Give the backbone structure.
Amino acid sequence: MKKILISMALLLSVGTISGQVDKAALKMLQKEAKAQMAEAKKIDDAITAKINEKTATEAEILSECKKGQSLIRKAINGGGIDEKKLGEAYKIYADLAQFPNNIMLGNSQNSQPFDTAYFYSNLKVLTTALQGEIQNTKVVKGETGNENYLKGKRASLAQCVNFYLYAAQLSTESEKFDKAVEAFETTMNYATLYPEVADQLQYQVAPEQIPYYAFHAAHEGKLYDKMDALYEKAVQFKDNAEVTKQVMIESFRERGDTALWAKRVHEMTVKEPENNETYIQMLIAYYLKEDKAAGEGSNKMMQYVDEVLAKNPNILIAQYGKAYKYFESEQYDEALAAYKKCTELKSDYYDAWYQCGLCKYRQALALNAKVSTIKNQTEAKKTLEQTKALFGEAIPFFEKARECAPDEPMKWAFELRQCYTVTGQAAKAAEMDKLL
């Protein structure tokens, strides 16, 4: 029991010493912060006086303000400034950021060079300082109060939203894409980051354009995670929505992820097939290749076009893809129905008309090959007549194809010659011969 009491006493003693150390450390922090704040204020007062007297050089202003910012930043971040003094500290901080900001904007307007990276870093200091001053300065009303002063500070903070937009543009031009995206995102989220001025913001561009610019800066910098996060907002800029979609989709190939590319194209085209026929065509080709590699039984392409056509049966390229798949698997009746649907959607579609004829033509060839194997003469004769009939049924489709491409007989004259020959139309067959 005695030993336990001694241990408790030791613990109490350590706690007391620790408390004393903490108080001493806090006192030291406060002393350092007070000295840093005083030195920063001295720099601020001196440079302000020189600016008012127009005796300060640009280099001197930038140098002194950087020095003063460093001091006041240490004082604020160190935690040693009395809460009642925070407003004053942030005011000094804001002054020391405002002067460089004004200089660099002036250089920009006069087409003079300036440090664009420093413009952005200083801008972040400026908005942090202005917000800190507004938050930590008690409002005093009346003629001798600070209401108008703080109103001016809020106006300055609101104005900075367009400076971030400018910083983003400068960073993009200098290919510092990570900084560009960061600045664009600050502009986009300004009302949330700086709620004190949310109702005062006036953007120099339409707000929906900002995520669009941010998205494309992220793409140029290959910042794919940022692209993914920005896409849904970027595509809301309707004027260039199609470009944004294309860049997003193609970025998956840039990343070397064709499976994800196919997944995203699939989602996009099934959701909105009307505006994505080019991508539907690309994905049909992709799935055809996959089906071929996987072998018999794989039918991804047909499943995909069925999804598209379920959403909109009038998507021409999907109908054509469906017809092609049927034709490839020698399901000629089904292929013919799908190709006919294509001609309903596009009356001058040469390929669809030609393929309609080819469905009948291939059926006729397949049936003709069986004639010599049939021993029963009656049955053989009947099959031959069926063959001739199929060749005859092919003629109107090939003639429609001819109407679509009248100056290109190599596309349709051979099949027409064969059909006319088999069906006993010698004069028309001879006409085709001349064209060939």
Residues 339 and 352 are 5 Å apart (CA to CA). The chain is about 80% helix and 0% strand.
